[in-house]
From TrEMBL:
NCBIfam families: halo_cynanin. Residues 42-61 have a biased composition (Low complexity). Keywords: Copper, Electron transport, Membrane, Metal-binding, Periplasm, Transport. SUPFAM superfamilies: Cupredoxins. Binds 1 copper ion per subunit. Residues 25-69 are annotated as: Disordered. PANTHER family: PLASTOCYANIN MAJOR ISOFORM, CHLOROPLASTIC-RELATED. This is Halocyanin domain-containing protein.
Length: 180
C-alpha cells in the first residue's frame, strides 16, 4: 500500500510540473523584429456578432444590449463587463495586467467602440512575452515582452472581435472589442 501512495504522489507531482511548464512555455520566447511592424489599419470583417437583440442588424441594441460572448470570458478573472468607449477616436488596452494568477490579462478585458476607432494595445513588460491575435485572423501582433511596445488596429466594421494572447490563452488571457 505504501508503494501505491508513493506512485500517486509522484504522478501528481509529474502532472503539476508538466502543467506549470506548459503554461510558462510562452513566457520565454520572442519573435520578429519590433522595428519592422507597422500599425494595422486595414478594414476588418467582424467575427460573429453575439449580441443579444431582437434584430439581426448588428448595429441595433449595441449601446444598451446585453453582451453574450458564448463563454469566451468564463475563465477570465478580470472580466468585469464591457467598458463603453463609444465616441472615442482612440482607445488604449494594457497588455500584461494582473489577472489569471499573474500578469496574464488585458485591461480592460472588453471594450465597446464606434466604427473607425483605433485601439492601441500597450505592453507593460510584465508576464513574459505576449501577443494580440484575433480568433479569425483579422489582426495579429508579434510576440514580444518589451515594456512600451504597441500594436494598433482600426476597426471599420461593426461586430464582436474576440482576441487572445496565444501562449497564455489557456490561462484566461483573452479580450474582446465590440464595434457598433
Amino acid at each position: 500500500m505504501t508503494s501505491t501512495g508513493l506512485s500517486r504522489r509522484r504522478f501528481t507531482a509529474l502532472v503539476a510540473t508538466t502543467s506549470i511548464s506548459a503554461a510558462l512555455a510562452g513566457c520565454t520566447g520572442s519573435s520578429g523584429d519590433a522595428a519592422s511592424e507597422d500599425p494595422e489599419t486595414a478594414e476588418a470583417t467582424p467575427a460573429e456578432n453575439t449580441e443579444t437583440s431582437d434584430s439581426s442588424d448588428s448595429d441595433s441594441g449595441a449601446a444598451g444590449g446585453t453582451q453574450n460572448f458564448d463563454g469566451w470570458f468564463d475563465d477570465v478573472e478580470n472580466f468585469d463587463g464591457v467598458v463603453d468607449e463609444t465616441g472615442s477616436d482612440a482607445v488604449e488596452v494594457d497588455v500584461g495586467v494582473e489577472a489569471n494568477g499573474g500578469a496574464f490579462g488585458f485591461g480592460p478585458a472588453a471594450v465597446r467602440v464606434s466604427k473607425g476607432t483605433t485601439v492601441t494595445w500597450t505592453w507593460n513588460g510584465k508576464g513574459g512575452t505576449h501577443n494580440v491575435v484575433h480568433t479569425d485572423g483579422e489582426f495579429e501582433s508579434e510576440l514580444v515582452g518589451d515594456e512600451g511596445h504597441t500594436f494598433e488596429y482600426t476597426f471599420e466594421s461593426a461586430g464582436v472581435y474576440k482576441y487572445s494572447c496565444v501562449p497564455h490563452e489557456t490561462l484566461g488571457m483573452k479580450g474582446a472589442v465590440v464595434v457598433e
